[in-house]
């Protein structure tokens, strides 16, 4: 059996888990604070929250900088680790995938179980990340091998570069109807852009219609060419119908844009370890999409959108070959069989 821990922040970890588990020949048991994703066929252990009612000023949440999140005397942390440990102690899990948690990586390895860590871009040379990446038997990188990396050789030697992987991989990209539509795609991992900024961009581009997916907007402008949809289940149809996507540089959002092969403007948001800026730099250096360091001024938007439309979306095939989930599952199946 394969164990799979999926972090609760944002939607990408859960979507990635579902895509990989669907390709695996070995049964997969999932662990997360979130409920099981749609279509999950194996067992799923929903874990207690370990992030509520934390006074970081009064609690040593990092154990002296050795870990990322271990708040002292926290019932949620104790209970969730207890549930994970109960499953690990059964001896059925042959390999543990961790996406992402230094603490779960260490915990599984202390049970004698090989660990596969889903790697992340950015600065990962802090003590906790070095511990997790060093102990991992494999590192799975959801970006292509040609992307620049400053990792040490000991990590690169055990890394499998999957390329981006999405729940939409394998679907034929649709050709949108002629027109000028922008899809602003913002995820559940947090939003740095204000509704007023989107409104100003739409007002400066009256020949384009803006559709916005993501958190409900407060203070949004009432414009004829701007529609706020909130959260929607069918993101694919929106992606397929748009001419240009404006998105952050989170792994899941980029994977879905890549699967649809849509022209894009990528604007990284501030995240720990410089993750999104590192990803955006990879895209820029490879010429995959139009990358902006921050949200453009209103008068810049007409030129930015035209540039993205002309650039096109065919280069996304280099970022996301479409077989990432199958390749990840193959690695996990091989490891599970090797450790029987």
Number of helices: 12
In CATH terms, what is the architecture of the largest domain?
Answer: 3-Layer(aba) Sandwich
Could you tell me the radius of gyration in angstroms?
A: 21 Å
Q: Give the strand content.
A: 15-25%
GO molecular function: hexosyltransferase activity
Domain Glycosyl transferase family 28 C-terminal: 232-291
Organism: Amycolatopsis lurida NRRL 2430
Pfam family, one: Glyco_tran_28_C
At a glance:
It contains twelve helices and 13 strands. By secondary structure, the protein is an alpha/beta fold. It has two domains: 2-165 and 322-338, Glycogen Phosphorylase B (Rossmann fold), CATH 3.40.50.2000; 181-319, Rossmann fold (3-Layer(aba) Sandwich).
Entry keywords:
single chain; 340 residues; alpha/beta; Rossmann fold; 2 domains; 7-stranded parallel beta sheet; 6-stranded parallel beta sheet; 13 strands; 16% strand
Notes on the structure:
Residues 232-291 form the Glycosyl transferase family 28 C-terminal domain. It comes from Amycolatopsis lurida NRRL 2430. Helix 3 (102-110) crosses helix 4 (127-135). The protein has helices at residues 12-23, 75-88, 102-110, 127-135, 153-156, 195-203, 235-240, 251-260, 275-286, 301-311, 316-319, 324-338; strands at residues 2-6, 28-32, 44-46, 95-99, 115-118, 138-141, 159-161, 181-185, 209-213, 226-230, 244-247, 264-266, 290-291. The chain has two domains: 2-165 and 322-338, Glycogen Phosphorylase B (Rossmann fold); 181-319, Rossmann fold. 42% of the residues are buried. It starts with a strand and ends with a helix. The protein has 340 residues and is α/β, with parallel strands linked by helices. Helix 5 links the parallel strand 6 (138-141) and strand 7.
């Amino acid at each position: 059996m394969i164990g799979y821990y999926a972090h609760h922040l944002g939607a990408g970890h859960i979507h990635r888990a579902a895509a990989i588990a669907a390709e695996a020949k070995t049964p997969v048991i999932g662990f997360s604070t979130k409920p099981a994703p749609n279509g999950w066929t194996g067992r799923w252990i929903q874990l207690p929250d370990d992030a509520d009612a934390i006074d970081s000023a009064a609690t040593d949440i990092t154990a002296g900088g050795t870990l990322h999140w271990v708040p002292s005397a926290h019932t949620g942390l104790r209970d969730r680790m207890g549930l994970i440990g109960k499953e690990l102690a059964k001896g059925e899990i042959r390999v543990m995938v961790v996406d992402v948690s230094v603490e779960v990586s260490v915990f599984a390895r202390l049970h004698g179980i090989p660990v596969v860590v889903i790697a992340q871009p950015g600065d990962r040379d802090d003590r906790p990340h070095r511990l997790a990446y060093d102990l991992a038997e494999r590192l799975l990188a959801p970006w292509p091998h040609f992307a620049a990396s400053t990792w040490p050789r000991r990590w690169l030697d055990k890394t499998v570069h999957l390329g981006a992987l999405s729940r939409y991989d394998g679907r034929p990209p649709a050709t949108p109807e002629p027109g000028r539509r922008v899809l602003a795609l913002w995820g559940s991992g947090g939003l740095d852009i204000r509704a007023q900024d989107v409104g100003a961009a739409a007002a400066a581009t009256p020949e384009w219609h803006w559709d916005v997916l993501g958190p409900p907007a407060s203070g949004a402008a009432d414009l004829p060419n701007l529609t706020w949809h909130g959260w929607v289940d069918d993101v694919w149809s929106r992606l397929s119908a748009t001419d240009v996507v404006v998105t952050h540089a989170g792994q899941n959002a980029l994977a879905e844009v890549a699967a649809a092969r849509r022209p894009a403007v990528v604007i990284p948001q501030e995240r720990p370890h410089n993750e999104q800026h590192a990803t955006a730099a990879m895209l820029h250096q490879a010429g995959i999409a139009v990358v902006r360091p921050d949200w453009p001024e209103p008068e810049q938007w007409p030129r930015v959108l035209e540039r993205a439309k002309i650039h096109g979306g065919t280069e996304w095939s280099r970022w996301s070959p479409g077989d990432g989930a199958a390749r990840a599952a193959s690695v996990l199946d091989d490891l599970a069989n090797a450790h029987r």
